[in-house]
Amino acid sequence: MELTVKDSNWAKEVIRQSDFFDTLTEQELAQLVEGFEKRHYTKGTIIIFQGEISNKLFIIQSGKVSVNVRRRKQVTKVAELVPTDLFGEISLLTPRSATATVKVEEDSDIIILAGDVFRGIVKNNPALDEKIRKKIDERLKMHDQLENPEQAIFSAILPKETPRHKLDEEDED
Predict the structure, then answer these.
(1) pLDDT (mean) for 142-170
(2) H or E element that contains 141
(3) What is the pLDDT of residue 144?
(4) 71 CB contacts (<8 Å, ≥6 apart)?
(5) What is the pLDDT at residue 2?
(6) Could you say which DSSP state residue 124 is in?
(7) Which residues contact 28 (CB under 8 A, 6 or more apart)?
(8) What is the mean pLDDT of residues 24-43?
(9) CA-based, 20 to 30 A from 114: which of 21, 32, 86, 155?
(10) Above 70 in pLDDT, residue 104?
(11) Residue of 42, 39, 49, 44 lying closest to 70 (CA atoms)
């Protein structure tokens, strides 16, 4: 589903507040938002399975999802993500297997960006490419060093503290 102007403005604000994307220019941010699409997921739907190859960014606009990790036949919930949280950006430049299964806990609207759109923007900006790759490397190193890497990577990819009240106020317009 195509984004409304309100959806686009909301997504742009969330992206601006994510340290992962803080090097984007206004023009690059506008290009990025043009590549977004919106999907509605119902409770119980699996958005992505652990081990599945992905190259998409997901931003939760409404609802709630859980992040679940399977180890030796046991599944553990390691995080719950709510509006303005995002996941998947580490795979935007290079498709990677998901470190967890993400399941919809409440009906959710999710804004999605395909990796090829992002790679098109980065291709024209070598400095941005280098900065993004450094951030990915930092997160992957942290992932490898911690005892519970799945939980660490999801807590590391969440945006900077988002003034949720500001985003909620925009919804009231």
Answers:
(1) 47
(2) helix 126-145
(3) 61
(4) none
(5) 85
(6) T
(7) 121, 125, 128
(8) 92
(9) 155
(10) yes
(11) 49
**Separation in Å, CA 16 to CA 20, 41, 160:** 9, 25, 9
Beta-strand relationship, 96-97 and 56-71: unpaired
Whether the predicted pLDDT of 161 surpasses 70:
no
Q: Residue 128, exposed/middle/buried by CB under 10 A (0-12, 13-18, 19+)? A: middle
Count of positions (residues) in the chain = 173
CA distances, 60 to each of 11, 109, 120, 123 (Å): 9, 6, 23, 26
> 3-class SS at 119?
helix
Q: Which amino acid is at 165?
A: H
Query: Model confidence over 81-91: pLDDT tens digits?
Result: 999 998 887 78
Residue for token pair 């790679």: 119
